[in-house]
């Protein structure tokens, strides 16, 4: 009986300590309407004519999946939502893609795993630019090594070319990521493979990818290992710049968002099994802090530091929540500039 009592006291003490050390939750300003299946990754399009009418796109990862479009109230915009997709995984956005000599369009790109391809649509008119999709990893024979998952778009400041950097369910220790040049000509838009790069620990998988266009740097999550950092410009080579941050994560390193201000930048990364986010200095890659935004098992996230009308005057942080929805936070609540 005495031993049972001591065990009960010990368990109560551990529970109390766990509660005492839990980070306070920063409550979401908006929780979106739910999707049908399984949310995964968001991308924010800032409307250049009226930022209060910006759109948040989010994947619904299922055999009968979709790219949902949400307004800033979290309501589904059905006219901008793309349905009947085969397991869309991750989504990204780029501004000013040169469609022809006289036309530039904003675009979203996303992976469609079960069709082993990536898709490209113009925004906000949501027109397909890919003639049904661009096949990826076509030279791969191993099971699931041709199943695209993560994607990030990179617009070269020097050449203005737009590239898609694509990850997959599994792959080799070197050359895990494929980079495609998105080329528009008189016959339409094409995806040309320009390089294979990126190290892989072999521990889990690589899904979350984000690019700092201005600096020409790509970051990606080697989930059970570290955040990897490479040059996004193909001509700058394939040597890894840095592998960092793994010690600050409970288990999986997941979604990555880059928040850039005039003189300061931050890398915000999902600490998935801890249900929190770790914040790193973008310049030094040093750990700054951990925040609790109330989401569970976050896969993907995105951020903008631009004012989005009265609803989000200090910018917006969007994160996937494991209850078929996304959380919207006023970026000021993360207190990035107060550190």
TrEMBL record:
<feature type="domain" description="BPP">
    <location>
        <begin position="16"/>
        <end position="339"/>
    </location>
</feature>
<feature type="signal peptide">
    <location>
        <begin position="1"/>
        <end position="20"/>
    </location>
</feature>
<dbReference type="InterPro" id="IPR011042">
    <property type="entry name" value="6-blade_b-propeller_TolB-like"/>
</dbReference>
<dbReference type="InterPro" id="IPR003431">
    <property type="entry name" value="B-propeller_Phytase"/>
</dbReference>
<protein>
    <submittedName>
        <fullName>3-phytase</fullName>
    </submittedName>
</protein>
<keyword id="KW-0732">Signal</keyword>
<dbReference type="Pfam" id="PF02333">
    <property type="entry name" value="Phytase"/>
</dbReference>
<dbReference type="GO" id="GO:0016158">
    <property type="term" value="F:inositol hexakisphosphate 3-phosphatase activity"/>
</dbReference>
């Amino acid at each position: 009986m005495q031993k049972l009592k001591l065990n009960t006291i010990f368990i109560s003490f551990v529970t109390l300590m766990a509660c005492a050390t839990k980070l306070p939750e920063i409550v979401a300003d908006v929780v979106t309407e739910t999707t049908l299946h399984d949310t995964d990754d968001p991308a924010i399009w800032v409307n250049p004519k009226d930022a209060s009418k910006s759109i948040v796109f989010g994947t619904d990862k299922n055999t009968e999946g979709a790219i949902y479009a949400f307004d800033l109230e979290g309501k589904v915009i059905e006219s901008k939502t793309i349905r009947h997709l085969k397991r869309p995984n991750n989504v990204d956005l780029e501004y000013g893609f040169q469609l022809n000599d006289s036309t530039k369009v904003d675009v979203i790109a996303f992976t469609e795993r079960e069709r082993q391809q990536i898709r490209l649509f113009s925004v906000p008119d949501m027109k397909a630019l890919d003639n049904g999709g661009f096949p990826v990893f076509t030279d791969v024979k191993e099971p699931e090594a041709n199943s695209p998952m993560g994607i990030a778009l990179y617009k070269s400041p020097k050449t203005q070319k737009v590239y898609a950097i694509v990850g997959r369910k599994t792959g080799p220790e070197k050359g895990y990521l494929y980079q495609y040049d998105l080329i528009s000509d008189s016959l339409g838009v094409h995806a040309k493979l320009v390089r294979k790069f990126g190290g892989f620990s072999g521990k889990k998988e690589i899904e979350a990818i984000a690019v700092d266009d201005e600096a020409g740097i790509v970051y990606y999550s080697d989930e059970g290992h570290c955040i990897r950092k490479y040059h996004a410009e193909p001509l700058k080579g394939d040597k890894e710049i840095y592998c960092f941050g793994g010690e600050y994560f409970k288990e999986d390193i997941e979604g990555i968002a880059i928040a850039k201000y005039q003189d300061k930048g931050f890398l915000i990364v999902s600490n998935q099994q801890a249900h929190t986010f770790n914040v790193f200095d973008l310049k030094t890659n040093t750990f700054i802090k951990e925040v609790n935004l109330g989401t569970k098992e976050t896969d993907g996230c995105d951020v903008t530091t631009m004012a989005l009308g009265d609803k989000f005057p200090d910018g917006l942080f969007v994160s996937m929540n494991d209850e078929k929805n996304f959380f919207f936070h006023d970026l000021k609540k993360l207190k990035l500039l107060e550190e």
